[in-house]
Amino acid sequence: MKVLVIGAAGMIGRKLCERLLKDGRIGGAAITDLVMADAVASDLGVGSGFARSITVDLAQPDASTTLLASKPELIFHLAAVVSGEAEQNFDKGYAVNLDGTRNLFEAIRAMGDGYHPRIVYTSSIATFGAPYNGPIVDEFFHTPLSSYGTQKAICELLLADYTRRGFFDGIGIRLPNICVRPGKPNAAASGFFSNIIREPLAGREAVLPVSDDVGQTHASPRATTEFLLRGAQLDSTQLGARRTLMMPGVRASVADMIAALRRVAGDSIVTRIRRMPDPAVMAMVAGWPTMFATKRALALGFLAEPDFDSIIRAHIEDDLDGVFVR
Questions:
Q1: Three-state DSSP class for 126?
Q2: Helix H or strand E encompassing 169
Q3: Which helix (H) or strand (E) holds 106?
Q4: pLDDT per residue over 213-270, tens digit each?
Q5: Do 289 and 136 form a contact (C-beta atoms < 8 A)?
Q6: Per-residue pLDDT averaged across 167-175, rounded?
Q7: Ordered DSSP codes for 200-254
Q8: What angle do CA 89, 98, 145 make, to 5 degrees?
Q9: What is the pLDDT of residue 187?
Q10: Contact 158/101 with Cβ under 8 angstroms?
């Protein structure tokens, strides 16, 4: 199988590529060619006989020609300008998140000759918008309240329509909040959820810009990698016309998260969280959905952690080599 990962240098992209490099296969198919693409240079795949990294800016008109040169049979499309940055930079958000995706879809359509890859596309809960009455069910309507959410909602529709027309076999993986994100804070508006866990465990102070009652549904990077791999192997005829699935996760408030951190790591770690309310962040958070009923995904075998303690332990095991700063 030939595999392409777009957005390979991002947090989830890197996790996915590391897994693919380690396994060397997806299900019963050996990976014969793995192209890992991003707008920034990466050292992924050095020394591997079947993988290589390339630098491609999805916003450039000729990007798709380079990305599809090997005619990959499986494409993971993870590249995106994240929520906060897409809101601040309108043009860049649409150029990458919408135009880049549409150009990719069009380039696949133009290739013809029976080329029909599987595309696993990552979407976001930002596609939803208030009002909310209880958990978001699989049939909930899209009324995004941000540019990022609008871009993702449009791409979900394009994914479904291009699949319906037979140009490729698309499946959308709509992710809950990914926590705990390793590395440095990014421009995502939801970044504080990871910051208040990651930074204290690393011995650094973390700023909490919202109140303790703010909640969200979370899944770890470990679980997210499994979502993507399952999406790659799923019999997509089970999806029907609705090609995007909302992924499961753990519903936890900030207070629940801090309590879990205390149980896993101790009181001294929790003292590194500093409360500093930010009205702009609080206003953005107020428009987010927080609870989801993910019956379709669960029925198809997509699973997340059982509790937030497990999410913290996964971060310590996967990203801190089992050790944190006490």
A1: helix
A2: strand 169-175
A3: helix 101-111
A4: 999 999 999 999 999 999 999 999 999 999 999 999 999 999 999 999 999 999 999 9
A5: yes
A6: 98
A7: HHTT--EEE-S-TT-EEEEE-HHHHHHHHHHHHHS-GGGGTT--EEEPP-EEEEH
A8: 60
A9: 65
A10: yes
Cα 221 to chain centroid distance, Å, stands at: 8
DSSP 58: T
Tokens read off for 195: 């910051």
Q: What is the pLDDT of residues 275-312, one digit of tens each?
A: 999 998 888 788 788 999 999 999 999 999 999 999 99
SS3 label, residue 26: strand
CA 170 – CA 122 distance, rounded (Å):
11
Are 175 and 297 spatial neighbours (Cβ–Cβ below 8 Å)?
Answer: no
Q: Which two tokens stand for residue 44?
A: 């992924």
Angle between helix 254-265 and 191-201 (nearest 10) = 20
Q: State the catalytic residues.
A: 148
**Any residues with CB less than 8 A from the CB of 300 and at least 6 apart, and which?**
230, 234, 238, 245
Tokens of 233: 């192997």
Per-residue pLDDT tens for 256-272?
999 999 999 999 999 99
Instruction: Determine the Cα–Cα distance for residues 176 and 156; give it in Å rounded to an integer.
Output: 15
Element (DSSP H or E) covering residue 177:
strand 177-178
User: Which tokens sit at 308?
Assistant: 């937030």
Sorted by sequence, the CB contacts under 8 Å of residue 151 that are 6+ apart come out as 86, 93, 94, 97, 98
Q: What single string gives the DSSP state of each residue in 242-297?
A: --EEEPP-EEEEHHHHHHHHHHHH-HHHHTTEEE---HHHHHHHTTS---B--HHH
For residue 75, what are the β-bridge partners?
A: 4, 119
Whether pLDDT at 189 is above 80: no
